[in-house]
Design a protein that fits this description.
This protein is mostly helical. The chain is built from 8 helices and no strands.
């Protein structure tokens, strides 16, 4: 009889919470294992809160380095959001900016030894995607009204198209399916890329110091770049979802 093939688990960097969970084979260890990504997510929130506090506690006309960096980031995000949505889109700057900074920070902490990116878990990225999804739906109903949003989902049938049933029903079905798929595609795109980046770095590290370091160092900077790009892609796509609603509003 042939022995069943054994699957090899994908390599993964050890992290503090994971090591503590393995050392405690009890309820506390189970708690740490189950809430591992959430703990790191909260850690990033606290870290960003501390940075924001020190960046804004002593605001001056001649800002220091930290205040200058914070102001540059705020102005950059605000200009970008307004360039897409127009002046009326400034009310979404805080949401899009917070989304970008939070995702970027969660991507980056996975590159620090003994820490883990929460975005390597689908539960985290799906939670972020659902926040975007429900906020977009809330904005659509608030700005367009129930009938206006329903008209938007049907493709705004006008003229003879308004008296047919096939095309409005078809457009309504397509739009509803696309709305439902958005959080799925957003979450899987971010999670898969961050998880893949972590696995690549862990694989090179497992080759040892002599062979793995030659591949690990250049790929580390590549992963740093892709982590930034993925945070930007998630935020830009979220911004596009708002722009679709606002463009529909402006077309009336």
């Amino acid at each position: 009889m042939t022995e069943p093939a054994q699957t090899t688990a994908a390599p993964e960097f050890p992290n503090i919470i994971g090591l503590m969970a393995e050392m405690n084979h009890n309820a506390f260890g189970h708690f740490l294992h189950f809430w591992e990504s959430t703990i790191y997510s909260v850690f990033v929130i606290v870290l960003l809160g501390v940075v924001a506090y020190f960046a804004t506690r002593n605001r001056a006309l001649v800002p220091g380095r930290l205040q200058s960096a914070a102001e540059f980031l705020v102005v950059f995000v605000d200009d970008f959001v307004c360039s897409v949505l127009g002046p009326g889109g400034r009310k979404y700057t805080a949401f899009i900016g917070t989304l970008f900074i939070y995702i970027l920070a969660m991507n980056y902490i996975g590159l620090i030894p003994f820490l883990k990116s929460p975005n390597a878990e689908w539960s985290t990225t799906m939670g972020l995607s659902l926040i975007v999804f429900f906020y977009v739906q809330y904005t659509a109903f608030k700005e367009l009204g129930f009938l206006g949003y329903f008209d938007h989902l049907m493709g705004q049938p006008r003229g003879i198209m308004a008296f047919t049933l096939i095309m409005p029903i078809f457009m309504f079905s397509v739009h509803v399916v696309s709305e439902i798929i958005r959080p799925l595609s957003l979450s899987l795109r971010l999670r898969s890329n961050i998880y893949g980046d972590d696995m690549i770095l862990a694989l090179f590290a497992s080759w040892g110091l002599k062979d793995g370091f030659l591949w690990l160092l250049p790929n580390f900077f590549l992963v740093l770049l892709t982590s930034t790009i993925q945070a930007a892609v998630f935020s830009i796509l979220s911004l596009v979802y708002f722009s679709l609603i606002m463009k529909h509003e402006e077309s009336h």
